[in-house]
Amino acid sequence: MAAKRPKTDVERVACLAYFLTHNRDTSKFKTKALTDLNVEAAGDKFSNISATAHNAAASCNGFLSSAGAGNKQITARGEAMVEALPDRDKVTAALAEHPARKARKKRRTRKKGK
């Protein structure tokens, strides 16, 4: 974490997820595993790890994705961002190479009788 120097909580979560995936051979994990790893790394406490993990998985960030049964996993976009840290210019380039998935538009439902 010290070498990567993430600026936001979402980046911290992505760094922890990267470490779990590549150093602990844990491709799928729950937020509890992220919290435990953060404590082990002596990182600042998250105010709400569930919300932060949800934000990291949101379509605007796309660093994590759902892996079923409440598990999360790091995406290629998240891995590229972590590998580019701490150089912010490289982060910008990595995120441009791996664009976030756009949110789907909601379908309009027709009212019955019309």
Give an overview of the whole structure.
This protein is mainly alpha-helical and about 110 residues long. The chain has one domain (about 10-95). Helix content is about 45%, strand content about 10%. It has five helices and two strands; from the N terminus they run αααββαα. A two-stranded antiparallel sheet has the order 1-2. Strand 1 and strand 2 form a beta hairpin. Helix 1 packs across helix 2 (about 30-40), helix 1 crosses helix 3 and helix 1 (about 10-25) crosses helix 4 (about 75-85). The longest helix has 15 residues, at about 10-25. The N and C termini lie far apart (about 60 Å).
Write the layout of secondary structure elements.
Blueprint: H1 9-23, H2 31-40, H3 49-57, E1 64-68, E2 71-74, H4 76-84, H5 88-97
